[in-house]
Amino acid sequence: MQYSGLRVIWEGLTGQKGWGPMWRDPAPKTTYDMVIIGGGGHGLSTAYYLAREHGITNIAVLEKGYLGGGNIGRNTTIVRANYFLPGNSEFYSHSLKLWEGLEQDLNYNVMHSQRGLINLFHSDGQRDAFVRRGNAMINQGDDAILLDREGVRRYLPYLDFDNTRFPIYGGLYHPRGGTARHDAVAWGYARGADQRGVDLIQNCEVTGIDIENGRVTGVQTTRGAIRAKKVGIVVAGRSSQVAAMAGMRLPIESHVLQAFVTEGLKPVIDHVVSFGMGHFYISQSDKGGLVFGGDLDFYASYAARGNLPMVEHVMEAGMALMPMIGKAKVLRSWGGIMDMSPDGSPMIDRTHVEGLYLNCGWNYGGFKAVPASGHCFAHLMATDRPHEAATGFRLDRFATGRGLMDEEGTGAQHNLH
Amino acid sequence: MSQSHRIDGGQIDRSRTFRFRFDGVGYNGHPGDTLASALLANGVRLMGRSFKYHRPRGPMTAGSEEPNALVELRTGARQEPNTRATVAELFDGMRAQSQNRWPSLRFDALSVNDRLNTFFTAGFYYKTFMWPAAFWEKVYEPIIRRAAGLGSLSAKHDPDVYDKGFLHCDLLVIGAGPAGLMATLTAGRAGLRVILADEDFRMGGRLNAETFTIGDQSGAGWAEATVAELASLPNVRLMPRTTVIGAFDHGVYGAVERVADHLPEPAPGQPRQILWRIYAGRTVLAGGATERPIAFPDNDRPGILLAGALRAYANRWGVAVGKRVAVFTNNDDGWRTAHDLAAKGIEVVAVIDPREDGPEAGSLRAIRGGEVVATKGRLGLTEITVRSGKGRLETLRVEALGVSGGWNPNVNITSHHRSRPVWDEDIAAFVPGAGGPPGLMAAGAAAGRLSTHGALASGQAAALEVAEALGKQATADTLPQAEDAPVNIRPLWQVAKEGRAWIDQQNDVTVKDVKLAHQENFTSVEHLKRYTTLGMATDQGKTGNVLGLAIMAELTGRSIPETGTTIYRPPYTPVAMGALAGRSRGREFKPFRLTPSHKWATEQGAVFVEVGMWLRAQWFPRPGETHWRQSVDREVLQTRKSVGICDVTTLGKIDIQGTDAGAFLNRVYANTFATLPVGKCRYGLMLREDGIVYDDGTTARMGENEYVMTTTTANAVGVFRHLEYCRQCLWPDMDVQIISTTEAWAQFSVAGPNARNLLEKIVDQDISDAAFPYMGAGNVTVCGGLRARLFRISFSGELAYEIAVPTRYGDALIRRLVAEGKEFDAVVYGTEALGVMRVEKGHVAGNELNGQTTALNMGLGKMVSKKKDSIGMVLSQREGMVTEDGLRLVGVKPVKPDGKLEAGSHFLPIGARPVLANDGGWLTSKVYSPHLGCDIALGYLKGGTDKIGQRMRAVNLLTGLDTEVEIVSPHFFDPEGERLRG
C-alpha cells in the first residue's frame, strides 16, 4: 500500500478502514536463502536492501523481542557525516546521501530533519582539530563551516557565553547534520522489507549457529531450527554473545549509554548542539522534548540501564552550556547496550566461517549509520565483496594495524571512545 | 472572586487567605491548597489544553500523576513550564498561566485540530508530508514544531540555585500513607535509622483524602499524631516534599526535595531543590496506588475526574468540583466517593455501576448495569448520557463526574531494575514481580494491599522483616482498628459505544488509535506505545497505560499478563534538569586548578587560558603592547637572548619507588630506562597497548630505587591511572609504589643562555656544566636550605633547567627568580611563547600527540626498543603501522615569507583538486616564529621524510586560505642542539 497525503485524507473520510498491517507476522519457515539475526535498524535495513538492490527476498529477520527494540529505539537520533579518517569518511558520507532520499525511497516519513549540527570548541587546540576535521569533510564532498564565537552566538544565542568555565571559541557547523524519528526508521525499513517478501519474525531468539565443515548451515532458535545458506549477525550490544555461538571471541565490549528526554516544550533549540568539554549533545524533537546524552557509564554491562553519577554528569554539562534548561524536566531516561570496538569504528566483514557475516562495533554512533550499514552489509552478503563505501571496516585491521579508525584517539580502551 | 465551590472541612487554613492569579484573573485560596484545588474552589474547571487536539481540559487527578492541568508557573526567568497544578502548593501572590493555547485558553485556534481528528490519527505523520521532498524541512516540519510542545521555557538562564547531598540510612521508606507511616513507626521505635520520604507537602497519603477512622481517630488525625511521634525520634528523618525518583544499583536511591517551590521565590542562598543520593540498607516502597479511568466517549471534559480525586478535593481541600455530580465506577471504591460527597451535602444524582451486584446503595440512586455513553459541555461538563443495563438512555445534568476503573499499585520503582510486574486477578491490577532491586520490598497499596488495615499490617510486617534482617529487635504492636474492605471489582476497560474515548488524555490517544495500531500490527505494547505515543506524556503513562494495554489485550485476544507492560524507567516523576546538575554550572562546572605562580601572574596582569582544568598564564602584556603577538614575540626573543622563566607545574609528576622501579619503567616506556644512571634524566616515550604513542616526558633517577616521572599536562591523570593499572593488575608481584605529586611541587622552567647564571644565584650547590651536565637531575637546596629538585632539561631548545620546590614555596620562588633575574633582563613567559619555542625546536605536544600517531609518524621510531618488551611494542610493529609511505612529522614554511599558515589545513599537491584522494595530511601546530620572521608549522605528511625540500600547498577550505609551502625538517631552530648543551 502506497502512503500519501491523499491516502491519509481518503482514509480519514472512510473511517481508517483501509490501512493494512505495516508488516506481516509470519511463522518461520524451515529454510531460507539468508537469515539476518537481529531486527533492529541495521538488520532491517540489511534485509530491505538485500531485497531491493539484490533481489534476494527469501530472507528471515530473526528478532528476539520486538522489531526496532534495540538501540534504534533508544538513542539521541543524531544523523551526521562529520568523520575525518579514511574509511569512516566515505561510509558516513554515503549514509547521509541515503538518508537524504530515505522518505521517498521507503515511502515512509522518517522525519529526517537537516537542522544543522554545531560542534563547539573551547581551546586553540580543539579548533585546530576541528579545522582538520572540517577540511576532511569538505574533501569528502560533505559540508562544514567554521564559526567563530560571534557566529555561534548568532545561531545559539541561549548558550552561556559570559559566565562559563570553558569559554566558547567557536564551532564547526555541519548544515546537513540533523535528526530523524528513530522508531520510524525501523518501521519504514521493516515495512519496505516485508512488502518485498522478507519474513520478519519477532519473539524468535537465536540460541545456536549451525556450522558444518566450516560452513554455516542455519540457526537454532526458540521457534525451532532454521536452515540458511548465509547468516548475518547484526545484534549490536549482543554481538559478543551471538558470535560466541560460532566460536568467535570478538574485540567488542558492551557498555551502557544513557540518554534522556524532557517533557514537551515549545521550540527553543533549533539545532543539534554538541559540547565537547562536557561531552553533552542535545536537540529538540519535533514533538517538543529535549533529547540529549553524554558519556558511557564506564563499566561493561548488559543491563540496559544506568546509574546516577552519569545522570548528574550529563545534566551538569547541559546546565554549564545552556543554563536556560534548568527548569526543563527530565521525563524519561534509558540505557542502550553499546557494542564498543577497539578503535571506535565498526566492522562489516566476513568471518572465518563461510557464509557467516558480521556487522557490529557501532559504538554509540550506530543510528546515523543505519542506511549505509544495511546497504553495505547487503552488498557484502549478496556478492561476497565489500561495498566500496565500507572497504575499511575489516575485522582483521586490529591484527594488521592497517586502516585503524580511531577518531577519538583514545586507543583500544573500549569505554573511552 | 468568591470561592463559589468551597465547602466545609478539609485540611486548609481558612484563617489566612492567599491571593493568586491564573491567566491574569485574581482569585483567593488558603494555605494548604494546591493551585488546582484553589481554582476548583473558585469554580474554575478549565486549566489546560491537550497536546494534539487542543481539547479543553481540567484536572483529572489530585496528585503527581496529573496529565491535564499543566500550567506555566511564575514569570520571567523563573517561569516553569508544565507544572502540575494538582501538586503546585499555593502561595500568596502566585502567578500562573495556561499553556499550549493561542490566543487564549477559552478560544484556542489550534482546537481546529480537534475538528480534523478523523485525519490526525495515530502515526498519520509517518504516511504523509513526503511530497514534495523539499517541503519537509521548509514547510511541514516548522509548522508541526510550532504546533507541538506544551509549555515554554523562558530561554533565560535559570536564576535558581540547586543543591545536592548524600544521606545514609538503615531503612528508606518511600511514601507516608498508612503503610509507610506504620513501617517507619515500627522501625523507628526499634531504633533503626529511618528516612521517610513523601512527595506531598502533607504526610498521610490517602488518609488525608479519606473519611476512614483508625482506632478512635480520623485517618488524617492518626497520620498527624504518628508524624508527630516520628518527628520526636532522633533516628527518624522526615522528608516531605521529597520524591524518590529512582532505584539505582547498590541500594542507591535518587530523591528530589522541593525546598522552595512553595515559596514565591527561594530565600537568598536557599536552594530551590536538592537532589539527595540516599544509600539505603533496605527500602520499603509504600508509594500507594493510582486510580485508572474507563474509556467512554468524550471522557476527557473538564469536570470529569477520577473518583478518588473527586473525593480528595472534597475531603482534603473542602472543594466541591461540581454541585451536582455523578459517579461511574466498576468497583466498590468508587461508591465511597458518592457516599462522601453526599455526606458533604453535594447532590449525587446517580452512581452508575456496570455491575449488577454492586454494594448497597443506601439513599443513593444506583444505575446498575449502567454505563456512561456520552458527555456534553465544551469547556466544562454539563451533562452525561447513561445507558442502563436494559439499554435505556437517560441524560443527567451534572457539573462533575467521578470515574473509577480500579486502582493500579504504584509498582514503578520496583521495576527500575527492569523486572516486570505480575497481574493479580483478584484486584485486576499489576503488583510487584520478582527480581526487583535487592533490598526493596513493597507494602500497602503499592503491594496490592488496598485496604487501610492491609496497608497498616503490611507496613508493619515489612519493617519487622527489615529489623530482623539488620539484627535489630522490633516489636509488633497491636494494630489500631481500621477498615479492611475487600476489593470488589469487575474490570471494565471501555464502554461499547461509537465515539472518541480517551486513554492517554494529554497525548490524545483514544481507543480508535489503539484499534488502528492493532489493525496495522503494532500489537506489542512497546510498538503500541511508540506508534500511538500512549504513555509518553508527562504523566509517563500513570493514568493511561494499563487501560491502553488492556484494550490491546481485548483486541488481540491475549490476556493482560501475556500482553505485558512497557518498561518502567526513572525518574518516577519528571525532574528539573537544574536539580540533577546542582551547583556544577557556570564557572563552577569544573574546579579551577591554579598554578603556584597564579597570584603573582595575576598581579602582573597576565592573560590566562584554560588548559584542561588548569588556568595558565598565556602571556604577560607589558605597557605599550597592544597586540598579543608583541608580548609573545618579546618573551620568545628575550628568552633566547638572555633568560626566561615559565611555570610548568601543570606537567604531571609521579614519584615511582621500589626495587623494581627501573624494571617497571622499562615496561611502561618504549625506550630503555633500566640503564639510566642515578642523577640523570631521560626523555621517555610511552605507548598505548595498541602501539600508538600515549604520552611523553622526562623521567629522572633520583636514587637507586627512586624515579620521578613527568607527563604532559593533558595526560597527567590518565598516565597515573595507567601506571596504577599496570602495577595493580598486570604485574602485582613487582615491588613498585607510585604516587602523584603534581600538586606537591611547584616547578619552573628557567631557559636561555643566562639560565645557569640566574639559577646559581639561588641554588646552594655547584651547578656548573661539569657538576650538573645536560640531562642531569638531583636533589638540591635553594635560598639557603629549602629542599628542591633540579633537572637540566629543555623544551625550548635553550640551556634550560626545571627547578621544583614544595608547592607552598612556589609563590616565593617565582618572586625570587624574577628579582634575581633583573640583572639579566629575565622575562617570564606564558604558554604561547612556550608553544612557539617548542615548534621552533620541533618538539611534539598535544596537537601531535593526538592519540592517533605512532613513534614512527613522529620521527621517533628508533626510540621503540626491540631489545625488551614494553607496553605497545609488539602492536606498534604491526605491518600496517610501519609502512614507508605513512605519515611523518615535517616542518612547514610558507614559500613567500608573508604567506599565512593555519593549523588544521590539509596538504595538497600543487595544482591538485581538494578531494580525499589528493589529501596528503594536515598541519598540526602553527606559530609565528620571531626568529625566522614568518609563520612556521608542524604537520603530518604522507611519506613526509622523502618530501623535505619539496613544495606543496597548505589549504584550509574553511577559511579559503591556500598557501604554497616548503616542506622542511621539523627542527627549525638549532637543529644540532648546541645551545642546550652550553
Number of helices of chain B: 21
Shape of chain B: elongated
Question: How does CATH name the architecture of the domain at 162-289 and 409-469 in chain B?
Answer: 3-Layer(bba) Sandwich
Share of helical residues of chain B: 10-25%
Strand content of chain A: 25-35%
Poorly predicted regions of chain B are none
Largest sheet of chain B: 7 strands, mixed
Average of per-residue pLDDT values of chain A: 97
> CATH class of the largest domain in chain A, anyone?
Alpha Beta
β-strand amount of chain B = 25-35%
CATH class identity of the domain at 162-289 and 409-469 in chain B: Alpha Beta
Number of domains of chain A: 2
The fourth-level CATH homologous superfamily of the largest domain in chain A is FAD/NAD(P)-binding domain
Shape of chain A: globular
Helix content of chain A: 25-40%
Describe this structure in words.
Chain A has 417 residues and is α/β, with parallel strands linked by helices. Chain A is built from eleven helices and 18 strands. In chain A, the strands form three sheets. In chain A, strands 1, 2, 8, 9, 10, 11, 17 and 18 form an eight-stranded mixed beta sheet that branches. In chain A, helix 2 runs parallel beside helix 7, helix 2 packs across helix 10 and helix 3 packs across helix 10. The longest helix of chain A is centred in the N-terminal third of the chain and has 16 residues. The model of chain A has no long low-confidence stretch (mean pLDDT 97). Helices cover 21% and strands 27% of the residues of chain B. The radius of gyration of chain B is 37 Å and the shape is elongated.
